Each structure stands twice: as C-alpha cells, then as structure tokens.
C-alpha cells in the first residue's frame, strides 16, 4: 500500500550506534505468554512472517541467526504478509507451500499492521496458521506488533489491531503455540527516540536500525529460553555487519 512499505535510505546509518545500544540492553528481560510450546534442543531453522515492519527487523535477524548457525528465512512482505484482513486470502494461496518449503523448526509470525477484522476472524486466522505450521512439523511463535502512531490510513482500524494480541493468546491457550509480548521491547506506545537516538521511523510505523537491533536481541533471548540448546551469538558478531544501511530503514 502506498506510503506504508520500504522507502529511501535514511540519513543515519551509523552502525556503531546500533552496537552501542545493543550492548547496553542485552540484560533486558522480555515478558511472554507460553502455552504448550515444545522446548527441544537446538534451533535448526527459523521462518519469519510479517509485514514491512517485520521485513526491516528481518535484516539484523538474518545476520544474527547466521552468526548463531541457524538457518533463517524471511517471507515478511511490504504492504502485506498478513494472515487476516486485506490481501490475506491472496497470501494464503502460497503461504502453506512456503512454510513447507522452508522446513522450519520454528515459525515466527509478527502480528501485522494489516491484521484487521473482528477478534473471531483473527482467532480463526491464527488458528489456521497454527494448523498449517503444525502440519509442517514446526512450532508457532506469535509476536505482538510494535505500537504505531496511526495516520489516516490506520486510524479506522485501531480497535481491530488492539484486540489482535488477545486473539493470538486465545489460540495459543487452545493449542501448541507461544505468544511473545513485544511490549518488553517497545513499551505501550510509539516512541520515536530512545536513549537520544532514533529507535522508530518518523513515519510512525516502521523501525530504525537501533530498534531493530534491540528487537533482535530480545527475540534471540526468548527463543533461547524456549530452546535451551540454542545459544544466541554475541552482538559483536552481527550488529555491525552492514544491514543497517538497507533501504528499509527510512525516517531515521
């Protein structure tokens, strides 16, 4: 959708700032709701799903998982990537085959800014995703989306987005899935600047390199908690590998 995908390269791409912040925040503990997810040894392969917010976060995640010896695939999509709401049925035409082809151990779906619909519709979609992931021999981890500063495009859908985490938790409570509450990373409201540096894009939706790095460190720790055989790589192994100059980071 226009205005809500990737943009031009932001003015600030100082990778050392990403590393500096990440080293200061590695001790942060995340809040999560786990229901029935298996915690097996190691973490062979991770598949990441979501919208353009997730596509930006996938950049440091790819570097970190490579450093940690984990096969990582992202099919996060600009202007979509959702399993409920607009374009969801189009996405479902290819999503099951994409999940199967990736042969993941864990599928991480970050709830998207397009997960519109009633709570019942959201629960049905997340349940469908859980069934699909389970049939592929993987486990599902649902991650709440970062809070946004809505524009005219998103404002009519705020109530729908607000109950999406409850829908995810309802599905996790009834099946073999995990919900991770990303408020541990972002807080309850959109915050563009953190520790004096750009953390979220000025567009009110996306992340900046600093925020994406903080999210990566948090998600690695959460996955290590679920899979004790997985040891997250040190930030020094992935934070300064060039990903922060990517065009997904705009308004930073």
Structure description:
- The protein has a single domain, classed as SGNH hydrolase (Rossmann fold).
- It has helices at 15-25, 52-67, 88-92, 95-102, 119-135, 158-162, 164-174, 183-186, 209-226, and strands at residues 31-35, 45-49, 71-74, 106-110, 139-143, 177-181, 193-194, 197-198.
- The protein is built from 9 helices and 8 strands.
- It is globular.
- Helix content is 38%, strand content 13%.
- The chain has 252 residues and is an alpha/beta fold.
- Helix 1 (15-25) runs parallel beside helix 9, helix 2 packs across helix 9 (209-226) and helix 5 (119-135) crosses helix 7 (164-174).
- A 6-stranded mixed β-sheet has the order 1-6-5-4-2-3, sandwiched between helices. A two-stranded antiparallel sheet has the order 7-8.
- The model is unreliable at 1-17 and 23-40 (pLDDT under 50).
- Strand 2, helix 2 (52-67) and strand 3 form a beta-alpha-beta unit.
- The protein starts with 14 loop residues before the first helix and ends in a 26-residue tail after the last helix.
